[in-house]
Amino acid sequence: MDDQRPQWWLVSAGALAIVTLALSGWAERGATLALASLVGALAGLSLYHAAFGFTAGWRRFIRERRAAGIRAQCLLIGLTTVFALTIIHYGDAVGIRAGGFVFPFGLSVAIGAFMFGLGMQLGGGCGSGTLFTVGGGSTRMVVTLAFFILGGLIATYHWSFWQALPRLPAITVARSPIGPPGAILLTIMLLAAIAWQATRIERRRHGSLTHGAAQGSFLSGPWSPLTGALALTVVGVLTLLVLGRPWGVTSGLTLWGAQIANTVGVPVADWAYWTNAMGAVEAPITASSTSVMNLGLMAGAFVAAALAGKFAPKLNLSARDVATAVAGGLLMGYGARIAFGCNIGALLGGIASGSLHGWGWLVFAAGGSVLGVRVREAIGMDPPLTAQNPTPAPASG
Hints:
This protein is mainly alpha-helical. It has one domain (8-378). The protein has 16 helices and no strands.
């Protein structure tokens, strides 16, 4: 492995950007947004060093039956659930007020999640994965991000149609007779069953297990999947404590789209989605908690890449790279909006809130990912698996 030294001047620039963002947030809404930007920076650092994206973990399991990513994700969701449901339902006793992401499950969520799963395989990253890889210097993911934003904006234009489709009421298991403790136990049991079954399949296919990257330097990485899961659990808990709700990503990206559209004269105020939200559209980007977390995430990933000595953007994109980035971004942006979030807001935040829609999102996004992986193989994005090449190195994201 090449000896890659930290790019200290880039580290300094990234740290300055994080401080500037925090001060801007403070100017808008005080300590809340300042702290949110710092939590976002921690998320970016953690995601980059652990290469913790849902996309690659799912793709590796679908193609190769390697389950290290699945186990790490189950651990992250399980740990977050323990803290989230405790804070949401018992935090009032110590002066902490927080709510969960509990949304209705219906056709819009099923279709949107399937679109997102397909899009994240074509685009090469999930909601959080797109942001941390952009911050880490991926030029292809800049294209994905741009069309992610556009896809979300287009979905808000069609909002009334999707909201009229059949759906169940918003349901949280924590409000059922088993209460929050039972909801925590049930969630952990379901996640453990998923991890166990994925591990069983991996062992049956390969005879042994892989465990992801070994733990390296805390500052320059790489981090093991365990360290990544623990660090991102901290991010989720801090988000609840600072903002009073779970971590989210895509609503901020959709807001960016509306702010850009409004600036160039698109009448978004006439769209049902934005009618009562024009205050946010017309406010500075640093006035939104999700926006400052997203910006902090990208800045944190930038610092992580520079600490690892790996910030080196490349511009040699092929036509296929651009086409799949465009398609993936549009599918993810549109799908996330009509499904009430992405892998962070809907999957992690939804399940950790005890919401039924989080589990429904998981099922349909997994189905979309299977299709996305097969499309990648059909168009040559992934090398064929052979006896000589049974487990190619996974891409992050």
